[in-house]
Every structure is written in C-alpha cells, then in structure tokens.
Amino acid sequence: MSNKMTGMKKATAVMLVATVGAFQSLLMGTAMAQVTPSLAGSLSVRGSVTLNGVNVSNGATVFDGGQIRTGSNGSAIISLGKMGQVELAADSEIVLKLENGIIGGNLRSGHTTVSAPAGVGVNILTADGVAVAEGKESTVMSVDVACGNTRVTSSRSEAKVTAGNRVEIVAAGQEVAVGTQASGAQRCPRMAIETARIAQGTALSGAATAALVIIGLGGAITGITMAVQGDGTTSNASGILSGFRP
C-alpha cells in the first residue's frame, strides 16, 4: 500500500511539473509574438545608403517605420519576400510603412518604384497627396517628387492619386502629375528615365539615358517657348494625363 501511495505521489508530481512547463511555454510564446515584428525587409544597397541615419550595407534588416535615404551616388532595393519590393533611386528618402497586405511609405524626396503581386496593395504618401494601387492585380508603380511636384506612373495595373478632394485615375502605362507645380506641358526627365528603365526591366545604357534627358529638356524648352508666345494651349503629347492643383 505504501508503495502504491508513493507511486501515485510521484506520478502526480510529474504531471504537475509537465503542466506548469507547458503553461510557461505558452506564456513565453505569446509574449514573443507580441514583441517580435511580423513584417520586415532586407536591404540591397549600392553606393551611399543610410537606415535611420546610420550607413548600412547589403543584408541590413528594415522594419516598419524605417527611414531609408540614398546619396547622390546611391540606390537601394528593399526586398519584402512574397509581398514584393521597394526600389529607391539616388537622392531619395522614404519612411517605410508595412502592414499585412499593404506596402506603404512616406516619400519625402526623390523617386521610388514599388512592385507587388496581386493581393498586395500599395500606398505611397507625398507632400502633394497619396498614390494608391488596390492590389487587385500585380502592381509596378513609380512615384517621383524630384521635380517639385508628385508624378505617378503605373506600368501594369490601374492606380489612383488623391490630392485634396480630387481623385485622378492612373491607367497602366500613363502618368499623372499633381501639386502646385504640376504642368502638362513637359515631362520630368528623371521620371521618364526611371519609367523607361522599369518598363524594360533592365538598366538603361549611357546613350539611352542621355537621349531621354535631351528629350526631357526639349519638352521643357518647348513649354517655355509656348508660354512666352502666349499660345495659351496645353500639350498632352508627353503622356501626362493631367496637371490639376489640389
């Protein structure tokens, strides 16, 4: 009888220890889930790039709220796994905003291109408004603020730009300009270069880049000439859909 009692006590003790251990593991797992960021990206950099003000190299991890800035000779790609990626051109700055099913950010300067598969939305805020792709289809959307306004190009699916109480639709392959300096008379040379590069899927050669710059400068000169002559008409040959002011 004594042996039976001893065995039961040992069995009870073992079960109690196992139960307490399982409960502690559950609590620790829950706590870890609460403090571990669920979304993050990996940086691929070229030239001068900083993350939250600190110089970084390839492989640095970017979390929600991370501030990425490229120098005049720098560029960066933020790889987000199955969600897609964010590209930053030279002299650009973005504060990344990551949510489940949405790639977002505040583009403070320069140029960014966001690529995302179907099911992932894109939301890029600028000083002039916000560019959005709902994610019903795969998205390749470029946003540029380097020319004094916000210019948005969608290479694949439809996007939209909201500025104040106005909403403009950006059809695939077209560009919309918004802001106080928006104008349909000319394209931003840098935007033309980046858009062509994304559409081709490869970096442009030096000769092609120079040609695009010349085209952009030619458009600017034409716009100035028209203004001086008082023609009063607005050319839409550049492909810009509108130049409304919010």
Descriptive overview:
With 246 residues, the chain is of the alpha+beta class. Among the domains are: 1-36; 97-229, Jelly Rolls, CATH 2.60.120. The chain has helices at residues 2-35, 189-200, 206-229, and strands spanning 40-46, 49-51, 54-55, 61-63, 67-70, 75-79, 85-88, 93-99, 102-109, 111-116, 121-125, 130-133, 139-144, 150-154, 159-163, 166-170, 174-178. The strands form 2 sheets. The chain has a 9-stranded mixed β-sheet with strand order 3-2-5-8-9-11-12-15-16, with no helix packed on it. A hairpin with a 5-residue loop joins β13 and β14 (150-154). It is elongated, with a radius of gyration of 26 Å. The relative contact order is 0.09.
Keywords for this entry:
8-stranded antiparallel beta sheet, alpha+beta, Jelly Rolls, elongated, disordered C terminus, 3 helices, 246 residues, 9-stranded mixed beta sheet
- Supply the number of helical segments: 3
User: Can you tell me the residue ranges where pLDDT is under 50 for at least 5 consecutive residues?
Assistant: 30-37, 201-246
What oligomeric assembly is this protein in? single chain
Kindly state the mean pLDDT as a whole number? Answer: 74
Please name the CATH topology of the domain at 97-229.
Jelly Rolls
- Please write the CATH class name of the domain at 97-229: Mainly Beta
Distance between the termini: 90 Å
Order of helices and strands: HEEEEEEEEEEEEEEEEEHH
Portion of residues in beta strands equals 25-35%
* Strand order within the widest beta sheet: 3-2-5-8-9-11-12-15-16
Rg, nearest Å: 26 Å
Helix content: 25-40%
Coarse shape: elongated
For the sheet with most strands, the description reads: 9 strands, mixed
Query: Would you count the extended β strands for me?
Result: 17
CATH architecture of the domain at 97-229: Sandwich
Secondary structure class reads alpha+beta
